[in-house]
Design brief:
about 475 residues; Aminopeptidase; 20 strands; about 30% helix; 6-stranded mixed beta sheet; 13 helices; Leucine Aminopeptidase, subunit E, domain 1; elongated
């Protein structure tokens, strides 16, 4: 979609007018009834008029002006995207307030809201109308120049969030570990700054990544480890490592899940999120050295599947007693984290994972859980999330809970049913493998997808945490030495 920033409105299929509750509709509305539109947040009214320049006008409410926020504008943009009818490809918007951050939030919400996963929809009537043009009417010349610069980055980021959504929404018979590895290799073709290395099951066995290999044993398509590396005149002396859980389908293994199996294609959201960051890095430069570690597998049943009661030896020689094969995400992350610590000696590590259903119990479907061993790091992540209006909440890594991962017959165990506190216990298990490296864990067990579309989050994969992690990297200063 082409975005232009003219000072004067030209012909369009639909004119979008975001309005505060106290604003009077502009004079270009030929016929209107003020009583039909109060300007409440996300309220919409579609008007038709006999005017060749603007035959349709969509009013969208912003609420009270004194209470406005970037999130209100972003939601308004998403609301508009959801209201678009077939055949409307040329759009225009007249903002009520020429503010850079508010206009950017509106356009961001619009892009994120105008998303639909439709590779398998054959009926054209069920497919979205491609948008060809969006005019943003701007009078201020200085603001126009600032917008021109910022819009490029915004378009790349929102395109990437939607690309991540596509991967997470893909069925597991299409996107298995092998295909995910191929998708990762494609990113390197976009930029010489990014390199990719793939470990298959045989090479993983040689380096003793037994937890990752074991989780993938029950599946036809075996485990893979993907290493992505980006480097461009870095300000950090040691790399920043992002680790993403890539369970392309999670049946639970021998501890078979009994419900919601259709959602288990989403269990590779962490890996897709990290890959998304490298997609952005392929187009936008940051002066950093960043490594992505993506362990991918399918947790299935089969004659070779790992079993409750097994003891596995992780990459760092830690022995792990398996009490529940459905606590597999922490096993593949354990090997990935240990590998990163030994081979890259990172400045920081952040892992992203749909790790626990307990995250839903604790925080619902809109908030990701955050756990870490370094307050500086977790504070910076929370600040980044606040900047982009994504929600994360830090939970304590309590010393008494950490003791409960000890096993009677091995070094540690992968599940501690008697403790409860599932999010914290998952974090306690992972912390064992990062040693003293500054580390943070984002559990997206509830926030990775939504069963009900709302504003700029369509039904299905949400694409959350891509924007937070990108903002974190943009803010990053090497303060962890």
């Amino acid at each position: 979609m082409n975005i232009s920033l003219p000072a004067k409105l030209s012909k369009c299929d639909l004119l979008i007018l975001p309005l505060y509750a106290s604003n009077t509709p502009p004079l270009l509305l030929k016929d209107h009834s003020r009583a039909d539109f109060e300007g409440k947040t996300n309220e919409t009214v579609l008007l038709y008029q006999k005017d060749k320049l603007t035959p349709r006008i969509l009013l969208v409410g912003l609420g009270q002006e004194k209470k406005t926020t970037t999130e209100i504008w972003r939601q308004a943009g998403g609301t508009v995207a959801n209201q678009l009818k077939k055949g409307l490809s040329k759009l225009a918007i007249i903002p009520p307030k020429e503010s850079l951050r508010l206009i950017l939030a509106f356009i961001e919400g619009f892009y994120l809201g105008h998303y639909k996963y439709e590779p398998f929809l054959n009926d054209p009537e069920r497919q979205q109308t491609p948008l060809s043009e969006l005019q943003i009417i701007i009078q201020d010349k200085t603001l126009k120049k600032e917008l021109e610069i910022k819009l490029k980055e915004l378009q790349i980021i929102t395109k990437t969030v939607n690309s991540v959504r596509d991967q997470v929404n893909s069925p597991s018979n299409i996107l298995n570990p092998t295909q995910f590895a191929k998708n990762s290799q494609k990113v390197t073709k976009k930029s010489r700054k990014i390199n990719c290395k793939i470990f298959d099951e045989k090479s993983l066995q040689k380096i003793n990544m037994n937890c990752l290999v074991s989780v993938g044993k029950g599946a036809r398509d075996k485990a893979k480890l993907i290493i992505l590396e980006y480097k461009s005149k870095p300000i950090n002396k040691r790399p920043l490592v992002l680790v993403g859980k890539g369970i392309c389908f999670d049946a639970g293994g021998i501890n078979l899940k009994t419900r919601d199996l259709e959602y288990m294609k989403y269990d590779m959201t962490g890996a897709a999120t990290v890959l998304g960051i490298f997609e952005i890095l392929a187009e936008l430069n940051l002066p950093l050295h960043i490594i992505g570690v993506l362990p991918c597998a399918e947790n299935m049943l089969g004659e070779n599947a790992f079993k409750p009661g097994d003891i596995l030896t992780a990459y760092d020689k830690t022995t792990v007693e398996i009490l529940n094969t459905d606590a597999e995400g922490r096993l593949i992350l354990a090997d990935a984290l240990a590998y990163a610590v030994k081979n890259f000696k990172p400045e920081i590590i952040i892992d992203v994972a749909t790790l626990t259903g307990a995250a839903i119990t604790a925080l619902g479907y809109d908030i990701a859980a955050l756990i870490g061993n370094n307050q500086n790091l977790t504070t910076q992540l929370k600040q980044a999330a606040t900047q982009v209006d994504e929600k994360i909440w830090e939970l304590p890594l309590d010393p008494d809970y950490k003791k409960e991962i000890k096993s009677d017959i091995a070094d540690i165990k992968n599940y501690s049913a008697e403790v409860g506190a599932g999010v914290i216990m998952g974090g306690a298990f992972l912390e064992h493998f990062v040693k003293d490296t500054p580390w943070a864990h984002l559990d997206m067990g509830g926030s990775a997808w939504t069963n009900k579309a709302k504003s700029y989050y369509p039904k299905g994969a949400t694409g959350r945490m891509v924007r937070t992690l990108w903002q974190f990297l943009k803010n990053y200063k090497p303060t962890f030495d």
